[in-house]
Amino acid sequence: MNRNDLHDVIIIGAGAAGLSAGLVLARARANVLVIDSGAQRNAPATHIHGFITRDGIPPAEFLATGGDELAHYGASLLRAGVEASIAKATARSSSRRTRATRKHVRS
Length: 107
Ligand SMILES: Cc1cc2nc3c(=O)[nH]c(=O)nc-3n(C[C@H](O)[C@H](O)[C@H](O)COP(=O)(O)OP(=O)(O)OC[C@H]3O[C@@H](n4cnc5c(N)ncnc54)[C@H](O)[C@@H]3O)c2cc1C
Fold this sequence. Notes:
- The protein has a single domain, classed as FAD/NAD(P)-binding domain.
- The chain is 48% helix and 12% strand.
- The chain has helices at residues 16-27, 59-72, 82-106, and strands at residues 9-12, 32-36, 76-79.
- Strands 1-2-3 form a three-stranded parallel β-sheet, with helices on one face.
- The longest helix is centred in the C-terminal third of the chain and has 25 residues, at 82-106.
- The protein is elongated, with a radius of gyration of 18 Å.
- The chain starts with 8 loop residues before the first strand and ends with a helix.
- Flavin-adenine dinucleotide (FAD) is lined by residues 12-18, 35-42, 44-45, 48-51, 81-82.
């Protein structure tokens, strides 16, 4: 496994909750990955209300700003379903294992 594939924390969901958790952890210098399939519950709304300092902001703008704030602290945001991400990571690691086994058999 490559060092860059390792994360201290993986958060599923980049709505208000996941982004807030990611920001706090990334500020604490954790290596954070947030995986999100882009189906926030408030997506159909035109504006967010009742969130202090952000009253009236469109949900997409709120999420984009949240993503920028996380990126500022080095957190990564992956736009995908977590199931697809696990399948991809499993395939990647099993292909590495196969290559390593072939190398071992040859030598
Ligand atoms: C029409 C509507 C309007 C609303 N307006 C307001 C408002 O004005 N003010 C307010 O405070 N609240 C509002 N709400 C409530 C609002 O939805 C929540 O406040 C806010 O979205 C909750 O954030 P959250 O992070 O908990 O969940 P969500 O925003 O729902 O985020 C969860 C995220 O997890 C992701 N996810 C889930 N499962 C997986 C998986 N297996 N793999 C990858 N990603 C996954 C989803 O794609 C989603 O992006 C509204 C809700 C609705 C339905």
